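Friendly challenge for the regulars: who can give me the structure tokens for this chain first? No prize, just bragging rights.
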Amino acid sequence: MRNFRERYGRYALFALIFGLGAAIFIELTPFLGGLMGAATIYVLLRGQMFFLTERRRWRRGSAAAVLLAEAVLCFLVPISLLGWMLVARIQHLAADPQPLVHAVKSLSELLYERTGYDLWQERNLSSLIAMLPRVGQYVVGGIVDFAVNIVVLLFVLYFMLTGGRAMEAYVRDLLPFEGAQRDGFVHEMHLIVRSNAIGIPLLAVVQGSVALAGYLLFGVPNPLFWGVLTCFATVIPIVGTALLWLPLAAYLALAGNWAAAIGLAAYGTLVVTHVDNLTRLVLQRRMADIHPLVTVFGVFVGLALFGFMGIIFGPLMLSLFLFCLHIFKCRYIDGGSDIPSSACARDSRA
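First reply, four minutes later:
Bragging rights claimed.
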């Protein structure tokens, strides 16, 4: 009878935890971007927090406030400014589509002169004009979600920083590992988080800056706008930035500026692409090696779940999932007893 009551209590408690957890997770889905953002930035700032509180003897609240200001200045303000630039451009086009219509008309005339294909058709124009209000509504909704998740991120990050080692010890105790296995798992999680949270934005900034220099050099209209778009295009490996500089080179060719078109195409092929490969090589040596397919599908998943913030958190979530799957294979299918090493884990993602 006692064993039955123990099993009943264990399974009932598990069912209660699972049911309540599922309900809470569903309700918190709109805020997943903010929650994952707080956890990601905490991993990046935890070392500074321990330095201020344990070596400099700062109060936890004061140290957390200083690091929150650092997070806002170094992480959130640049992302917000880039996002706002794109949002403002799209909203302006949605409110006044005439400049876009004029640009498309000019491009269609050039295309018709060079190729004989008439892009300026009534159905194409109607589809373009009808699409703009929907894009504007989507952008406005994305702005609201982004603002709410930023507030959630800062709120949660403050309490994570003040929790510090006590919070980490509690989370460690919940992990299904012991001793060195648990330490290896936590270390690999830190590598994955740092690789995605630092590597993806750094690669985007470097490659976007190099592409911007080319746009300025060869006279591309609105070079800053296209440079920002190039930053976001870097999350798509293989094609990546070619989605921007190749059509821009084609536009320059249609406009009759063949020297600039050939120069931009050569610059994109020889400089922008090789800068991408070189930067990825350097980052892979210094951080966890994330397979390009993880980045591609992670971005798709992240955008669907988190919106704009999913560019970073989508690949992070997919990387964590694949690492946990590899641990399950090593421990329970292959019969190993230890957490796989970093090299083994990276081989599983290659």
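The longest helix spans residues 122-174. Confidence is low (pLDDT under 50) at residues 341-350. Your move, everyone else.
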